[in-house]
Amino acid sequence: MVYLLLAAKKGEIDMPKEEIMKYPLKNPLAVNELLIDLYNCEADLNNETALLSLVTEAAKIAGAHVLQASVHRFSPMGCSVIVILKETHISIHTWPEFRFAALDIFLCGESLDPFVAWNHIKEHLQPGSFELKELPREIK
Cα–Cα distance between 92 and 43 in angstroms, integer? Predict the structure, then answer.
């Protein structure tokens, strides 16, 4: 919050001090980011429409609020889907020719569990195996 107040005073952000003061962090916020490599996926990793729906559904099931999404299709195959959330983001990048996907789930909020989103995505992409890295973060 100190950074926000200083940035507001300097004119770096367009948010009145009164608005910033409405949302002070009383305690540090502990969150986890999940970085997951998915191998030998059974699902179609080249279908950006289905992937966008999947990631959006996963965010909503986890209790997050979708603000916007971006999709990029690569040639000849592969795509990136990024869903910007009120509570940060979920992104997936695919290499269908290798049946590989790289997934990033970062949800900020004490009531949000990134594993809820992960379980939904895992169920639909059906990886043969995966490597999950959990990155604990503290926002203070």
Answer: 13
Which range is most confident: 3-7, 12-16, 113-117? Answer: 113-117
> Tokens representing 42?
């059974």
Using CA atoms, how far apart are residues 12 and 8, in angstroms rounded to an integer?
6
Q: Which two tokens stand for residue 31?
A: 């969150």
How far apart are alpha carbons 37 and 129 in whole angstroms? 9
Q: Which residues contact residue 10 at a Cβ distance below 8 angstroms, ignoring those fewer than 6 apart? A: none
Contact (Cβ atoms closer than 8 angstroms) between residue 99 and residue 41: yes
Name, in order, each residue with C-beta under 8 angstroms of 22's C-beta and a sequence gap of 6 or more: none
The answer to whether residues 62 and 116 touch, using CB atoms and an 8 Å cutoff, is yes
Q: Tell me, yes or no, if the pTM score tops 0.70.
A: yes
Complete domains list, the chain, with CATH: 27-139 (3.60.90.10)
What's the pLDDT at 30? Answer: 77
pLDDT tens digits along 22-43: 666 677 777 889 999 999 999 9
The set of residues, in sequence order, having a beta carbon less than 8 Å from that of 23 and lying 6+ positions away, is: 1
